[in-house]
């Protein structure tokens, strides 16, 4: 084994960037923490997300707290702000997206059991309250991350990362 140099990592990454973005969008709805928003931007860039939709109270770039964790990814991933998520979800459905929510609800399935080959929109909701019934009623599927410890959830940015990589490998 040999550790890669920074130059080797950058050269390898330049090849991957040209592979393009996936048919995978993310909706961040009412995310309170700007650090979580920035972290999700960074992971979305790494995964190849085509666009992030920022809805409700979710903060938007440019902002120093987002930049602190995004490390420039907020300038690489397309994003748009919409106050109201409901018309956005209706538009995405008309465009052929499968709408998936990351939420622990009755009927949600473990994320690793979810299969998709169509353009996919992943909704990540508020860190405390999750997503509303109005939003849930527009979703095609609900997925969750099963927990084994005493805590019943992961940090929203960490949870996004786990599921985003699962979707990446299905859509690439």
Task: Give the gist of this structure.
The chain is 37% helix and 19% strand. The protein has six helices and seven strands; from the N terminus they run αβαβαβαβββαβα.
Question: How is the topology of this model organized?
Answer:
Layout: H1 6-17, E1 24-29, H2 34-47, E2 51-55, H3 64-70, E3 78-82, H4 85-94, E4 98-102, E5 109-110, E6 120-124, H5 133-136, E7 141-144, H6 156-171
Parallel strand pairs: 1-2, 1-6, 2-3, 4-6, 4-7, 5-7
Helix pairs in contact: 2-3, 2-6
Question: Which descriptors would you attach to this protein?
Answer:
7-stranded parallel beta sheet; 37% helix; globular; Alpha/beta knot; alpha/beta; 7 strands
Characterise this structure.
The protein is an alpha/beta fold and 172 residues long. It has one domain (20-171): Alpha/beta knot (3-Layer(aba) Sandwich). Helix content is 37%, strand content 19%. The protein contains 6 helices and 7 strands; from the N terminus they run αβαβαβαβββαβα. The protein has helices at residues 6-17, 34-47, 64-70, 85-94, 133-136, 156-171; strands at residues 24-29, 51-55, 78-82, 98-102, 109-110, 120-124, 141-144. The protein has a 7-stranded parallel beta sheet, sandwiched between helices. α2 (34-47) packs parallel to α3 and α2 (34-47) runs parallel beside α6. It is globular, with a radius of gyration of 16 Å. The mean pLDDT is 96.
